[in-house]
Amino acid sequence: MKNTKHRTARTLSHEETLRQSFEKVGLKATHPRLLVLGLLQELDGHHAVDELVEVLTERGTPLPRASVYNAINVCVSHGLVMLADAGPGPALYEASGMWHHHFVCTTCGTIIDIPCLKEEKPCLLPDRVPGQVEEAQIIFRGICNECLSKNTTNTPKTVYNRRGRQKKQT
C-alpha cells in the first residue's frame, strides 16, 4: 500500500510539471496533450505516433490517432516536442530538451542523440539561403560502437530497420 501512495504522489507531481510546461509556452494543458507529452518523457528516445497510440491503448488511456497527431503537432510548434529527423520511414518524435542532431546506425537502426555545438536552432547557416532558415538538422549515418564490437568477418552482416526488425537481404 505504501508504494501505491508514493506512486500516486509522484504521478501528481509529474502531471503538475507537465501542466507548467504547457503554461510556460501559453498552451492549455488538455488531457491528450498531457498524455502524449508525459508518455514521450517517460519512454525517452524517439517514437512514432503509431507506437504512442499503441502504448496509450495498452495502458488503458486510448486516444484516437488524430488526437495524438494534433497533440504532437501543437507540442512541436511550441518547442515541447522535437521531430527527430532520422531519414526515411515514419516521423519520430521525442520530448524536447536541448537542441541536438542524430546518429543513425545503418546496421541495427539505433538512433543516438548527438549534442549540437550551438545548442540552438538554426545551428548552421550557409552564406546564401533562398529564404529564412528556422532549423538545420544533421543526420550522421554509420555503424554504432555496439555493432562495431559485434562485427566479425566470418558472419554475414544482418541489417535491421529503425524499429529493430531484420530487413530482407537482396
Produce a short descriptive summary:
By secondary structure, the chain is of the alpha+beta class. The protein is built from 5 helices and 5 strands, in the order ααααβββββα. It has 2 domains: 1-96, Winged helix-like DNA-binding domain superfamily/Winged helix DNA-binding domain (Arc Repressor Mutant, subunit A, Orthogonal Bundle), CATH 1.10.10.10; 98-170.
Number of helices: 5
* CATH classification class of the largest domain: Mainly Alpha
CATH architecture annotation name of the largest domain: Orthogonal Bundle
- The string of secondary-structure elements, in order, is HHHHEEEEEH
In whole angstroms, the N-to-C terminal distance is 55 Å
How big is the Rg? 19 Å
Briefly note the CATH topology name of the largest domain: Arc Repressor Mutant, subunit A
Specify the biggest β-sheet: 3 strands, mixed
- Order of neighbouring strands in the sheet with most strands: 4-3-5
Uncertain spans: 1-8, 160-166
The total tally of domains equals: 2
Amount of beta strand: 5-15%
**Roughly what is the average pLDDT, rounded to an integer?**
82
Q: What is the tally of beta strands? A: 5
Structure characterization notes:
- With 170 residues, this protein is an alpha+beta fold.
- It is 38% helix and 14% strand.
- It folds into two domains: 1-96, Winged helix-like DNA-binding domain superfamily/Winged helix DNA-binding domain (Arc Repressor Mutant, subunit A, Orthogonal Bundle); 98-170.
- The protein has helices at residues 2-24, 31-43, 49-58, 65-77, 145-150; strands at residues 81-84, 92-95, 100-105, 111-115, 139-142.
- The strands form two sheets. Strands 4-3-5 form a three-stranded mixed sheet, with no helix packed on it.
- The chain is globular and about 40 Å long.
- The chain starts with a helix and ends in a 20-residue tail after the last helix.
